[in-house]
């Protein structure tokens, strides 16, 4: 053999060519980018992801919830620009969701019928903290076939305080001052951490109080920032404001449409 | 957990008026375990040119050596300082040479050119350069940073403002990113000097 | 199913009844079965593909923890002794920290707590089921339930779902007629009584501190400090743990919940104490 390198000296060129062709066939049949995730998805996938994001902020006597109104498919196609992601369940409970819209509708139906029954049984509207526990359990009941939703519940609690409850898909519940969910959650949350949680400033730094005006303007900023960078968030901000002792106000504000 | 987030780490750069800021966290990990807390991902390449390398740090180290080698060669051959635009092109070429077996690191270049015009850019692992005028972020905390920077960045910031914006952005990011943190370091590059400051952050 | 027409009245009525059963009432615990996947779909595989490592950031289940508990006896008559339960407060979905303020010590009755490690939702839900059982037991038997019995019920409940993908690592700790007790219960159905115990992603780090400094006889001050310190060191090294340290001291007479301590501040205090310079100095 010559000093030709690259091929092991013992290998027969014809056999090598055959081997190469065999490998090519295998790769073409099952390319490397077909990860186990993709293979599994192609097998049976009951979910789809309609994108979009929601956020909520609670204060002393108010809770505001915002979401975009874009509904996308595969993060590329826009299905509608007026999707309803915030559901006002009664005068003090607002459900905001992201994720699979089919599950969202089902979840809303479950909660609405339970609230209806509660009203029938007790002749009073359910308060946000009771509904929060109810939602947590109902999410958990689907532990082995979960709702594909990132849900959040906001509203006014029994004591007239603003409340935001955040969940994971199977109902891990936590009451927080502010929360976000959906595709732009990782973009919105650090901003709210910085502006409302004041986690990045020194302790003796004078912190501005969280008024309803400030909360609304922060929410607008958060969504404008998210819409710049996140493709499935945009079109309009749907803003729902619940203040203790006042009816719920809904607003629509413009956002990027590209 | 993908190889890109095995060691963790985040780098951000912001451009201002005749100044740029580049910041990184200080953590090195092995998946969930923190190994060291004194490993900055920002490296000096030339007087006013810095490069940040996030991603898998073993590759980042190798990459850095290669970058320095090419940059030294360039400076010897051309007998002038490297400009950030040139450096990014150089790194991009280097990355693309390894197109089918790339280094698991995303480079970021920040610096001032010879007219003191700020230049920042970041690229993916195979060297697709994107050089926006405002800010760039790479690493495990990229998403968090982009969200925050979008709200902090303004046109024509002075060095002090720019430092504040960068520091606040990276601190907000570290709050939510488990794979980076344990302190941060910010380089403020102005036409006269480079200011280095270490920021205390959460140690969890 | 076959041969029915669309205006089949009975099936409509039946569907309505099913819908009511499903949505209008809280299911009774005894005869409730979780809705499951269609036949032939592997539950664990399915969950991993949609909610596991490859899922979107906010679709992953929340997890990651350091929890610890230990029993000690009072060193001086002035001390109370009992059980120290200390936990961190981080919930993470992959690398994303989805919450910094989770309360991982959950109450079961007045004298007992359960800690939360593994899947957060699993722990929250099953702890509640156990708490409900304990309350009913007390009402029925007119005597407080023992830690042993409560943890056994917990372990049995989890054992019933073995292999279905539940993820629970809980410590049931409390004082009963037999004295201070800690039972570690996990989703494989394991249940064991321990004096010093730690569960979660940062448990090894916590064990390191505990094994080094734990003594069977300690003062209250020492014991609380040990709990805090073990959690602090665990959070420092483990990126899955962090936030604040919640501490609960169960004495023979009462359950004391101490105010949360920021672990990051604890770390800086610790560094001060050692006189170690932890300020990073960039060379160049």
From TrEMBL, chain A:
Function in brief: Non-catalytic component of the proteasome, a multicatalytic proteinase complex which is characterized by its ability to cleave peptides with Arg, Phe, Tyr, Leu, and Glu adjacent to the leaving group at neutral or slightly basic pH. The proteasome has an ATP-dependent proteolytic activity.
Keyword Disulfide bond: no
Family: Belongs to the peptidase T1B family.
The entry's keywords: Cytoplasm, Nucleus, Proteasome
Assembly mode: Component of the proteasome complex.
Record-linked InterPro entries: Ntn_hydrolases_N, Proteasome_bsu_CS, Proteasome_sua/b, Proteasome_suB-type
GO biological process: proteolysis involved in protein catabolic process
Predominant cellular place of this UniProt entry's protein: cytoplasm
Name of the protein described by the UniProt record: Proteasome subunit beta
Gene Ontology cellular component annotations, sorted alphabetically: cytoplasm; nucleus; proteasome core complex
Cell location: Cytoplasm; Nucleus
Key word rRNA-binding present: no
Automatic annotation (TrEMBL), chain B:
CDD domains (UniProt xref): proteasome_beta_type_3
Places the protein is found: Cytoplasm; Nucleus
Keywords: Cytoplasm, Nucleus, Proteasome
GO cellular component: a single term: proteasome core complex, beta-subunit complex
Residue ranges of the TM segments: none
Coiled-coil regions listed: none
UniProt cross-references to InterPro entries, sorted A to Z: Ntn_hydrolases_N, Proteasome_beta_3, Proteasome_bsu_CS, Proteasome_sua/b, Proteasome_suB-type
Record bears the keyword Nucleus: yes
The organism's place on the tree of life at top rank: Eukaryota
GO biological-process terms attached to the record: proteasome-mediated ubiquitin-dependent protein catabolic process
PANTHER family: METALLOPROTEASE TLDD, PROTEASOME SUBUNIT BETA TYPE-3
Function: Component of the proteasome, a multicatalytic proteinase complex which is characterized by its ability to cleave peptides with Arg, Phe, Tyr, Leu, and Glu adjacent to the leaving group at neutral or slightly basic pH. The proteasome has an ATP-dependent proteolytic activity.
UniProt family annotation: Belongs to the peptidase T1B family.
Subunit-structure text: Component of the proteasome complex.
Annotated protein name in UniProt: Proteasome subunit beta
UniProt source species: Caenorhabditis angaria
From TrEMBL, chain C:
Active site, renumbered: 65
EC category: hydrolase
PANTHER family (alphabetical): METALLOPROTEASE TLDD (PTHR32194), PROTEASOME SUBUNIT BETA (PTHR32194:SF3)
Protein keywords: Cytoplasm, Hydrolase, Nucleus, Protease, Proteasome, Threonine protease, Zymogen
Catalytic activity: Cleavage of peptide bonds with very broad specificity
EC number(s) per entry: 3.4.25.1
A matching Pfam family: Proteasome
InterPro entries: Ntn_hydrolases_N (IPR029055), Pept_T1A_subB (IPR000243), Proteasome_sua/b (IPR001353), Proteasome_suB-type (IPR023333)
A single GO BP: proteolysis involved in protein catabolic process
GO cellular component: cytoplasm; nucleus; proteasome core complex
Name listed for the protein in its UniProt record: proteasome endopeptidase complex
